[in-house]
Every structure is written in structure tokens, then in C-alpha cells.
User: Fold these one by one.
Assistant:
Number 1:
Amino acid sequence: MMVHASFVAAIPACHAEGRWLDRDPAVLSAPAAFAAFVGGLLARADPATPRAHDEVPSSVYWWTEGTEFLGRITIRHALNDRLREAGGHIGYEVAPAHRRQGHALAMLGAALPVAYGLGLERVLLTCEAGNVGSRRVIEAHGGRLHDSSAGKLRYWLVTGPCEDAS
Ligand SMILES: CC(C)(COP(=O)(O)OP(=O)(O)OC[C@H]1O[C@@H](n2cnc3c(N)ncnc32)[C@H](O)[C@@H]1OP(=O)(O)O)[C@@H](O)C(=O)NCCC(=O)NCCS
């Protein structure tokens, strides 16, 4: 797979900020292990795939440029009680080396029509109040603040081509 090397190379910087701790670059360097990992991610979209009781089917997309892994965005096909509180329908992250270049803005812009295609006319996004970058991304795409509790903000975004202005 084209982005194998750049994905594995991004892991240590994610570990440094406490993310992706379950991803071992030494293991994922092996093509077979990487293929199995990617296969597992893709399988999450299938409702028939076994999953933990508090997980829902989800589609994950990798944002890339040539062979470079830049970030990922995940669309959860439904909410459950846990996601309604924190997590929402859509989550994203940009690899540390590629931040502040507009990738998160572009990823969410690309994901909203996909969510609409999945039948989600509006989506819930949550973020920490102190996560200025994520707030800007959500608000730039028309996110309307629903509520704020314990430092966590919840926004609703309309996914469709236009919104009733009334
Ligand atoms: C939050 C995150 C996704 C932003 O990704 P990014 O690609 O750097 O964001 P963009 O370059 O698209 O920036 C979008 C806007 O946020 C601003 N921004 C981004 N990071 C920022 C930061 N750390 N502090 C202040 N503003 C920031 C940008 O300047 C831009 O604002 P503008 O459009 O007014 O110029 C990225 O920092 C990240 O992956 N963080 C860790 C995971 C995470 O927090 N995910 C979101 C969970 S809700």
C-alpha cells in the first residue's frame, strides 16, 4: 500500500502526544501486519463485523497526498449513549507533522457529503473547549453549539447541500 511507510513513520509523534498507543511501529512495519490492520479498519463499516457493545459501525478515511499519510477522519454511522456524550458522529486527527496547513478543514469538508450519503442529515461533533483548532474547524463548517458541559462542547452540523433558513 502506497502510504504504508509514511503511516508507520507518523506513529512515534502520535505516541509522544499520547495517541495511537496501541499501534506498534515495529509490528506495523511488516506488510502483512499492516494489511491486517487496514483490513480491520475497513471491516468496521460492516454492521456484521463483531464489535464491542458500545461501538457502532464506522467508516474511516485516510487523507493523503501522494504517498504521504496526512490524517484520518472517521464517520460513525449512528450514535449511542456514549457517543452522544463525547465522540459524536465524526472524529478526526491530523498527523503532527502536517498540522496548521488546512488539512482538518479540508477533511471535514470532504466528510460531510459522505455522511449525508450515509443518511445522516446532521451530525454531532464534540471537542474539548480548549481545542481551538478543532473548534475552528467545526465552526468553519457551520457547526452550531448545542451545549457545553465539563469543558466539552457539542456541536450539530448540517451535512446536506443547503439548510432551510427559516
Ligand atoms: C485539531 C486538529 C485536527 C487540527 O488540524 P489541522 O489540520 O492543524 O487544522 P487546520 O490546519 O485545518 O486549521 C483549522 C483552523 O484552526 C486553526 N488551528 C489549528 N490548530 C490550531 C491550534 N493548535 N491553535 C490555534 N488555532 C489552530 C488554524 O489556524 C485554522 O484557523 P483559520 O482557518 O482561522 O486559519 C489537529 O490539531 C489534531 O489532529 N489534533 C489532535 C487530535 C484532535 O484534537 N482531534 C479533534 C478532536 S475533537
Number 2:
Amino acid sequence: MYTIKAYLLDLKSDYHVHSNYNDHSSKELSIEKVTRYAEQINLSTLAFTEHVRKTSDWIPKYLEEIDRIHSSGTKINIISGFEAKILKDGTVDFPEGYEGYFLIASFHTTYYDKQIWLSALKSTISLPYVKVIGHLAPEGSFELTDNELIELSKLLNENTKTVELNAKYRRPPMRWLQIFKNNNVNFHLGSDAHQLAEVGNFNSIANLIEFINN
Ligand SMILES: [Zn+2]
Ligand SMILES: [Zn+2]
């Protein structure tokens, strides 16, 4: 039987947080400081999802530091993860050997051709090691039809992918969310924090959260 999922987004879980392992986040964003801040604001789940590329050489150190925090006895459920860029050919810029980690795949470049964008997205959704599609949104130069969004919903569900509600970009747009929700797509929250005060802060998408939770 067809039923619409009745669930609430967990405001105490942030599934998209950056750290000072990239070159553009605030220096204060150390794994340690983010974790202590998350404890202060009573987060229950915190996913570190640093920007990664095939060429990233800091991964072992990053994972080791997160492991150290784990064993320091924090009550927060800490997830070791990455955010990787979706490439035009539908693969992601992600190094081999880390497929077991929590992985967000996101578009980080502007596409002007809808078919290339859509086909890259569909291929990425079918990759088994991608868990989440990050800040999903239309490009300025094109829009998806309702039918295309319904088809995307089906693909997301078949491949058990989660669509993130992203506080930094305020995405996906409401119309997309309406169709995704009607088609039982799974959602969670990501602040996409690049500064400490942004961790666990979803104020900018209060309207999107309310829509999903009601
Ligand atoms: Zn991103
Ligand atoms: Zn991000």
C-alpha cells in the first residue's frame, strides 16, 4: 500500500560539517573544537564531511583525528565522512579505498546543459557508496519538470539515497521538496558549516523543515 512517510527531521543531527582540513573553512574549525561546540549545543549526531578529491593526501590524519575524538568518550554519535564533487561523466571525485565511509555527493560547478547535469546526477545516484545527495538544486539556466522530479524520486528510493536539506544553500527548493516528499524520499539535515557558529544551525531553512515535518 502506498503511504506517505510520517517522520520528523531530527534537529539535533547535523550530517554536513566541514573542518579546517580544507583550505577555505575557518581555522577555528578543528575536529576537537567542533565536537566540543556540538556537545555544548546538545547535538546527538555530528557528521564530519570534509571536501575530498582523488588527490587529497590528508585523509588518514583526518580519520585518525576523528577516531581520537571517538575514543575520548564524547556522547555524540560522530560520523567520519566526506563530501565529493559530482563530475560530468557521472562519477565522483573520490579516492579509492574509502568507500565504506559516509559520503555526500554534490554539484560544485555550474552546468548549462540540463541533459548532461541530469545524466551525471542519475549515474551518481546509482553509485552504491554514495549515501547522500548534497544541496541539490536546479541551475539558473534550467528547471526540472514535475515528471523529471518524480523520476528522480524513484531513482533515489531504489538506490536508498538521502536528500539533504542544506542550510547554507537553502536547498532543495520548495517545489522539489514537495514532489520528493510526496514520493517518499528520505531526508536529513546538513548545516554545511564552514564556521563554528553554523554547526547545528538550521534557522535559514526553517520553512523547509516545517514543510517536511508537518
Ligand atoms: Zn558542497
Ligand atoms: Zn559542504
Number 3:
Amino acid sequence: MKNMDFDIVVVGGGILGLSHAYHCLKSGYKVALIEKNDLPRDASVRNFGQVVPSGFNSQWQQYGLESLRLYKEIQQQVDITVRQEGTVYIASNDEEVQLIEELAAINHRNGYASLLLSQRNCLDRYPGIKPAYARAGLFFPEEIVVDPRLAVARLIGYCCEQLSLQYIPHTTIKEIVRSNGRIHLDSTSGVTFTADKVFVCSGNEFQLLYPHLFRQSDLKIVKLQMMDTVPQPSVRIAGSVLTGWTIRRYESFQECASYAGIKAREDQQAYHLQHGVHILFKQLLDGAVVIGDSHHYTPVSQHAVADFDTSAALNAFMIAEAQKIYQLDDWQIRNTWLGFYCQCASREVYNETIDEHIHIVTGIGGKGMTGSLGYAKEHITKLLSVSV
Ligand SMILES: Cc1cc2nc3c(=O)[nH]c(=O)nc-3n(C[C@H](O)[C@H](O)[C@H](O)COP(=O)(O)OP(=O)(O)OC[C@H]3O[C@@H](n4cnc5c(N)ncnc54)[C@H](O)[C@@H]3O)c2cc1C
């Protein structure tokens, strides 16, 4: 039986595990990142790749801003596909215009740069936006997009080459125990790993290691439907384009004075609310346009019956709504896919410590690509009592 010894082992190579590994490495620890696949295949590579602190509440906006800074800093050293092209929220009616104006004022007070756009400005910056839809916009120039599949793989490569990360793919951790003051991790590859400290960042699969904790938690599994079009060489969509239903959905807008009244007037039976749909656009490096998304929530107590079907009707609905908003050359869909993440009902992140040195960190919900680097920095600083 082979044994490999580290200061810190991180289980799960998604963005949350990778972010924890990154900050431990920056503090000089000997770190292994263990991933059951060759490269991560779950939420961290199936997402939009929008890094949008503007969508967060005030506390999480700080984590998002730190993530933005770190993504840009790393991009200076290696191309992890970061493009600083900003985020725009397009308002389609009076209520949404009211909300973007209120959010602009909040961000102005907080010192986070944003710019209100007239309808003319919106059409000039985003020529595909339909004039009948766009009333006004709110633009955040600091924000970035990444192509998640490339970004996560390249960030792992960067950590291996520049920070001496030991990345251990094709290895599933099946048991974690503490004995004689050390943590022992038993794997399917026959290797036993030992460490002083372990972070379990195994996404919505943490029930494999801690089924009782998983069942007791108030986590929900969230299923999202997404798609992309065929590449469109003559279309150019800069950054993230978020629209009216996003304004009515994202946390940051919940801090606006008019939000509660506007939500109270919504018809909760509307199809898009029943399926958690909002319409977002983002262009990949190859020219394809990513469109999404929907949200279905299943409490973990019912996970055994969580549905894993892709609804063709829901995809058709999202395409029809997207067509009301944006003019594309070619609406032929190249791929559709599902993504899953878990999210706590009562807190922003699921965070439990077992035997003092085993830290389960998951349930970052829809915030992971934006919030993980910043959140992990604070988490590691607190736990390791070091400045990272
Ligand atoms: C469709 C979609 C769109 C999204 N869009 C955005 C967006 O635009 N911006 C944003 O900020 N966030 C977005 N999110 C949210 C974001 O993707 C997630 O919050 C984030 O990826 C969660 O990362 P994670 O590391 O916790 O989980 P995961 O990505 O699920 O990673 C967990 C990893 O652990 C590994 N693993 C599990 N068990 C074991 C084990 N026992 N041994 C070894 N390895 C194991 C798995 O293989 C996996 O790679 C989106 C999510 C989805 C699904």
C-alpha cells in the first residue's frame, strides 16, 4: 500500500477546492488536490463563466471583488481566459429601470464602479439587443468572463507549475479518518494520503463521504439547463449580458428599496418563475453564444428522486425568450447540458468541521465562479491563522 504525505489535502478539484488549494500553496504549505476525474467535470466547468460581484449582496460582493482582483492577477502570468469586458443588466420596463437606478446608487455609495446606460447607449454597446426590449442598462466595467472549461484546467496547471501543487486525478477518496493526530484518506487507487488538515470540497457529491451529515443538512440540489449556439463569427457580445428577469432575481437587487413591492406584484404562477428562468447571454472564445438558464430545487432529503431529465419544452421556452431580446445570426443550438450545484437554505456556504482538522466546504450555490477565490482566502486565513 503506497502512502503519500502532505501538510494539506483538498478533496475535489472544482473551483472551490482549487481556490482553497491556491491559498494554502500561497502560504507555503505542501498541498495535494485530489480529483476523481481527469479534470473536474461538474458545476465548475458547466457554468456560464460570469464573474459578477454586482449580483451579490454587500457581504459577498467583497469576496467577489477579491476574486476579480485575483483572476486578473493570475491572468497577468498565464492565460486563464479572463476577459475584462464588463457586465450589463438590461432593463425592459419601468420597474426594472427603477431597480437598476437604485442599485447604481447603492454601488455608488459603496465605491464600486457602475454606469447607467440610456437605451441608445445599450444599443450602441450591444448592437444585437432589440430596441423593443431594452429600456436602459446598468454596466459594471470591472467585471470579467472566463471560459470555465479552459480556465479551471489552466488554473490547475498554473498551480502545479508555479506553486508546486500535487494534482492527483482519477482518484476518489472513499474514507477520511483521524488517528494518532493525523488525517488518513483512503482512496480507490490504493494510495493512502496523510495530512495535518483536509478540506472536503466535493460539491454536491459530499454525501458519498458523509451521508449522515448530508441528509441532516438543509442543502438543496439545484438543477440548471443551459445551451450554446453554433459559433457566430460576425456576432460580438462583450462580457456578460443579463436581462430583466435577472434584475428581478439576483441578490444585489434585493437590497433595493423598491424590490419587495415589485416582487409582490409578480404572478408566481408565471412559467418562468415556476422554472426559475432568467435569460443570460455570453460569448465563448470560439464565437458560440451561451444562453440560459433555469433552476429546479430538490431538498437533499428527496435527492433519491431528484430528476435528471432535460426538458425540451423548457429549452424551447428559453430560446423563444432569448429571441425576443437579442438578434443573432444563427439560432442553431450546438449543445444543451445540465449542471448541478448544492445550496444551503439557511447560510451562504455549507461549512462543517469534523475532528478539528477536517473541514467540509460546499454548497456555495450559484456563486462559485465569482465568490470562491475571495471566500477561500478569508476561510484559509481564519483557519490557518496566517496572512495569505
Ligand atoms: C449551469 C451553471 C451555471 C453557473 N453559472 C455561474 C456563473 O456564471 N458564475 C458563478 O459565479 N457561478 C456560476 N455557477 C455556480 C458555480 O459553477 C458553482 O458554485 C461552483 O462550480 C461550485 O464549485 P465546487 O468546487 O463547490 O463544486 P464542483 O464543481 O461540483 O466540484 C466538486 C469536485 O469534487 C470532485 N469530487 C467529488 N467527490 C470526490 C471524492 N470523493 N474524491 C475526489 N474527488 C471528488 C468532483 O469530481 C468535482 O470535480 C453556475 C453553476 C451551474 C451549474
Number 4:
Amino acid sequence: MLPITIWESESFFSPRDYIIIGSGFTGLWSAYYLKKRHPDRSVMILERGTIPGGASTRNAGFACFGSFTELMADIKQMGSKEMLELVDMRFRGLKKIRSLFGKQRIDYESTGGYELISREQYPDINVLRTQIDQLNQQLKKITGKQKTFQLSDSKIKQFGLGGSGHLIENSLEGQLHSGKLCAALLQKVQSMGVTLLTNTEIQKLEINANAVELQTNLPVTLKAGKVLICTNAFAKTLLPDLDIKPARGQILLTSPIKGLKIIGGFHYEEGFYYFRNLGSRVLLGGARNKFLKEEETFSAITSSPVQENLEKFLKEIVLPGVQYTIDQRWAGIMAVGEEKKPIIKKVNDRVYCAVRLSGMGVALAPQIAKMVAGMM
Ligand SMILES: Cc1cc2nc3c(=O)[nH]c(=O)nc-3n(C[C@H](O)[C@H](O)[C@H](O)COP(=O)(O)OP(=O)(O)OC[C@H]3O[C@@H](n4cnc5c(N)ncnc54)[C@H](O)[C@@H]3O)c2cc1C
């Protein structure tokens, strides 16, 4: 890049009140809430990719707040109170998305969510029924529904699913177009006066008495009164002490299928496998639980063992006896840690972070952003 002129340093690169690093869902929603709270303050987002390069445009587009077995596992790991707090944030997040953009603009479809459960997992259906009832009791005050989850075994045949087991339905879930949501959010914040610099990688932060100085790959040091780090899986570059590990998620997409029976978003094995219809195609992702060590990587390239596992699952469980080809494969990097909760933190008087959104960031990001904007 050529040396920076005075015109450029006093406009595009001028100091801002707030700089947000990362233009995924968390960065974009944070810009939205900061600007709502402080319309007169300047907000700029910095993104190292040409477009958001993390999980937000490489995910599966589930608008979900937790499958039955996933929430049961969360109760075991973190207790009911924290599980309910997370569900509440996701539920509110989905409401916010729908109310801000409407359904059409982001291809939001209230198709319902389903979870396929093997008979080995629940050999006694009465145990399953009792647990569903107990969880529904706890969720009632969040969703407003008596039965957030209900058994819908008869639909297994309707959807043409293979294998034997149970199907749990959650009519409150849906699916959306992640690229369109990101683009709509970006348009929204730009209309509020937020600026965005792409191809700008932040390499180091230095805090002095009056500002944070951000060293970048550009021949310019940027300055902000306060900085918010929203780089999710990549946050350790700037904040090495955080408990964050990368977790690659892999996806495949079939060709269009005539008379496709699968409609909605489906989960399997505590959400480690997930599939949905995308028009008349099937999008399937996951299998990370079978390759945990290998998938702890920043490399967003698909691997044969995971893709072969997904293809087997597709053939045996999702589309038994159906003809299709695989049209696309991709991977994205999410963030996980010892705890499932995101990290929302004031690092010091000038630096904040909202990271580690794990596998349900579509729904979680609006509330996380609202909370961190409130702290700043
Ligand atoms: C395969 C896959 C499937 C998923 N499916 C779903 C789903 O169906 N539903 C759901 O709710 N969630 C899903 N998720 C999770 C969801 O996508 C994430 O939780 C969410 O996108 C996280 O958003 P974020 O903004 O926090 O992080 P990201 O989207 O990862 O954004 C971080 C941004 O920071 C940028 N960045 C990083 N380092 C720097 C730097 N030094 N300087 C400048 N910029 C930097 C990156 O380029 C990136 O754009 C999935 C994730 C994956 C990987």
C-alpha cells in the first residue's frame, strides 16, 4: 500500500470513539447496539477479510436455541440456571433478528426444529416422555409455550428418515440465510453511521493515557477511545490468556432433490450432527464429536475422514434410497472452551471482548452484543 496522505489519515483512518475488531455477527450486532446507545459517537469495524471471514458466513443457518438432548447435557454440565440463561438469550436473539429484518429479507423460515434420537439412547419411551415434560416445565417461562418440545415419532416416516428411533419436535425453531443476515446487518449499521474497513488485520493493541493504538497490516496506526474484540475463535492473538480453542465445523450440500421430504432443521447426537433443507437441497454438517482432536484447528479446509462420515450419515439416515450428488463442501471455525458460556469481559478501562460463541451464535450474538455495549 502507498504511504498514507493527510486526507486519508484525517478521514478513513481518523481516530474513533469505538473500534470493533471482527465483522461477524457479534461485531455487527455490537456496532448496532453501541450506535443505538450513543448515536453521536463514532464507531468503526475492522475486518481482516474481504468479507467476514469467520463462522458467521460459513455456518448452517439454523435459527435455533438448543435441541432436547443438548439442553439435557447442558443441565448436567452447567446446571439448570445457566442452561436457562443461555436459552433465554438465544430466544430473545431470534426474536430480535425477526423484528429488525422481517422474515423475507433474510430467508427466515419458521419450519420448526427436530431432533432424531436413537432407541439405544432412550430404550424406555416413558423415561424420554418424563424428561421432555420436566424440561418443558423449565422452558415455559422463556418460550411461553406449555410444550416447547414434543414427541413426533410419526413424522419420521413423513420425512423419509432412516434408522429407528424417536423424533422430538420444537415448533419455535427455524432457519435463515446467514449471508443475507450478515449483509442486512452491515447495511443497517452503515445506515446508522458505522464505518467498516476490510482487509485490515489487527496485530497488536497498545494502550496509552488517552487512547488505544491499533497496529495493523496497513502502513497506519489506528486510534480509538475504546476497543471491542469480537474475533471469536481467533481472539487469543490479541488476548492470549483467554480459554478459547478453535473448533472446525464441516458442511456438505447436496444437489437439488425432486420431491425432497426433509423440511426443517434437524439435530442428532446433542447437536453434533445437524441437517436442514435449503430449498430442495440438503445441507448437512457436523461429526466433530468423532474427530475432536483433528478438528481443533484454524484451517478452514474440509477433510476426507469427516466428509466421508457425513456422507455415510447422509446416505443411511437423512436420505436413504434417494439419488443426489454432493455439490459443495465447506468448513468454518467456531470457538469453544472449558465452559460453554461466551466470554463477555472488560479487559481493562479501554479494551473489552465478546467472544467464544460456540455453535449457536446466530441466536446468541444479539444479546451478547447488547450486554457488552451496555458495559462500554
Ligand atoms: C460449520 C459451522 C456451522 C454453524 N452452524 C450454526 C448454525 O446453524 N446456527 C448458529 O446459531 N450457529 C452456528 N454456528 C456458530 C456461529 O456461526 C458462530 O457462533 C457465530 O458466527 C460467531 O460469530 P462471531 O461474530 O462471534 O465470530 P466470527 O463470525 O468467527 O467472526 C470473527 C471475525 O473476526 C475476524 N478477525 C479475526 N481476527 C482478526 C484480526 N486480528 N483483525 C481483524 N479481524 C479479525 C474474522 O475474519 C471474522 O470475520 C456454526 C459455526 C460453524 C463453524
